[in-house]
Amino acid sequence: MAALKEKYILSVDSGGSGIRAILFDKKGRIVSRQYEKTPPIVSEPGALEHDPEKLWQALVSILKKTFKNRKFQAVNVDSLGICNQRGSFLLWEKSSGKPLTKLISWADVRAGKTSAEMNSNRIWKVIQFVSRILGTITGNPMLIATYMLKFTTDHASVRLKWVFDKNPELRKRAKKGEILFGTLDTWFVYKLTKGKEHISDPSNATVTGMFNPFQLQWNAPLCGIFNIPMKIFPNVMDTAADFGTTDPSLFGVGIPIRAVVGDQMAALFGHACFEKGGVKISQGSGAFVDMNMGDKPKMSKRGLFPLVAWRLSGKPTYMLEGYTGTVGTLIDWLGKGIGLSDTPKVLNELASQTNDTEGVIFVPTASGMRFPHFNPNAKASIFGLSLATHRRHVARAVLEGIALSLFDILEGIKKDTNVPVRSIMVDGGVSQSDILLQCLADFCNVEVKRAPEPDMTATGAAYLAGLGSGYWKSLEELSKLERGYKIFKPKMDPKFRELKLERWHRAVQSTLKID
């Protein structure tokens, strides 16, 4: 019976291809971990979806696996936190809870024509024109954001309008209040509570493009212009709050749900980047660079929009996010596509055989350049090859190129906001490369700290749930939990660093000029 007295925090993390359930103890240590694959559905070109019912079944299955251990019964769980891949959504019937669409992924691009139509909408263009004039005069960040906004298929607003345009009957039912909208967090909470709760948090809502981060409410004017019924949206709670209790019929007892949060925001919180200027970089197939902007929404003049990182006790914390699409996928391609190295491990081993690239520069933009250069047609480029070039030089240039592309994102945010960076927290599979992280420390000229847990999203969701339940009392207590980061300190000669950066910038400019 003694084991039943010990309490844990349960974190559920649902990504693009799998779902995890992780238990954390009072010291923030992982004591149990379960995983199930949830592969996406590609029904036609451009489509990327999941079956919502299968995701729900996977969630129940993985939690029941967790509770098979006698030490970790549902009664041992203090509270549950949920984090999820952001921007994906579904519609379901209010009366029955039956899904009316698949979960349409943020990476689904079938609504490309709809985004073009939205950007050229006459009413929207007039609003942007007026916002540009008034924003220039007043400096109001909400007006500046309005005139800079360009709709893409990344925005759930675009994909949702596309769904309604394809299915007018769904729009009619939505206007009558018969249909509910939700990102994955909302769907899971709805199912776990047997339909009692239809809620989300600002971190998930803001990524949809339909939630105003400045006013912290659903954007009625935007939805009105594009004929998106407001009745479908969930209530938006604090990120750490009372999201209801799991129905006792599921796991024997009700488990309090005390946090929902978007995946990248969860990782920022998991790294304890609670202060303005805190930075984390999650490096997987792509890389997300997120910086804490404090309690006021900040704009990047080159197109990064303020996102709500979390809201606690009614007080929002904002962030800016830059993204590069090819990191892990690039390394895989270098092995499988052109045979530079068989595995990421071999790439690192090759790179470790030399301390320099001998003049080779690799610009890793195989899927286009995003912030701060914005050229979707840019291709990866390699410069400085000679007859003395060896594979080890190219391997090191690849890792340096990834680090330099991340440096560009961070420098862009710093220049646009005047917010300094004191250190960089990193996680993700690609971050296991010591060479890459040392390059990042050298080029950014700050300490880089690698988390012992490759993916910090689940950690952040757990911290928020524990904070919401009182399991942990404060941010200060969370900051003191055991972590065991490995630290990389800058050690590159300043003159050599400047030379490297100068040659890198010339290579980037040359790449931008190539069609």
UniProtKB/TrEMBL annotation:
<dbReference type="Pfam" id="PF02782">
    <property type="entry name" value="FGGY_C"/>
</dbReference>
<keyword id="KW-0963">Cytoplasm</keyword>
<dbReference type="InterPro" id="IPR018484">
    <property type="entry name" value="FGGY_N"/>
</dbReference>
<keyword id="KW-0808">Transferase</keyword>
<dbReference type="GO" id="GO:0004370">
    <property type="term" value="F:glycerol kinase activity"/>
</dbReference>
<dbReference type="InterPro" id="IPR018483">
    <property type="entry name" value="Carb_kinase_FGGY_CS"/>
</dbReference>
<comment type="similarity">
    <text>Belongs to the FGGY kinase family.</text>
</comment>
<protein>
    <recommendedName>
        <fullName>Glycerol kinase 5</fullName>
    </recommendedName>
</protein>
<keyword id="KW-0067">ATP-binding</keyword>
<feature type="domain" description="Carbohydrate kinase FGGY N-terminal">
    <location>
        <begin position="8"/>
        <end position="270"/>
    </location>
</feature>
<dbReference type="InterPro" id="IPR000577">
    <property type="entry name" value="Carb_kinase_FGGY"/>
</dbReference>
<keyword id="KW-0547">Nucleotide-binding</keyword>
<dbReference type="GO" id="GO:0005829">
    <property type="term" value="C:cytosol"/>
</dbReference>
<dbReference type="InterPro" id="IPR043129">
    <property type="entry name" value="ATPase_NBD"/>
</dbReference>
<comment type="function">
    <text>Skin-specific kinase that plays a key role in glycerol metabolism, catalyzing its phosphorylation to produce sn-glycerol 3-phosphate. Involved in skin-specific regulation of sterol regulatory element-binding protein (SREBP) processing and lipid biosynthesis.</text>
</comment>
<dbReference type="InterPro" id="IPR018485">
    <property type="entry name" value="FGGY_C"/>
</dbReference>
<dbReference type="GO" id="GO:0005524">
    <property type="term" value="F:ATP binding"/>
</dbReference>
<feature type="domain" description="Carbohydrate kinase FGGY C-terminal">
    <location>
        <begin position="280"/>
        <end position="467"/>
    </location>
</feature>
<keyword id="KW-0418">Kinase</keyword>
<dbReference type="GO" id="GO:0019563">
    <property type="term" value="P:glycerol catabolic process"/>
</dbReference>
<dbReference type="InterPro" id="IPR037444">
    <property type="entry name" value="GK5"/>
</dbReference>
<dbReference type="Pfam" id="PF00370">
    <property type="entry name" value="FGGY_N"/>
</dbReference>
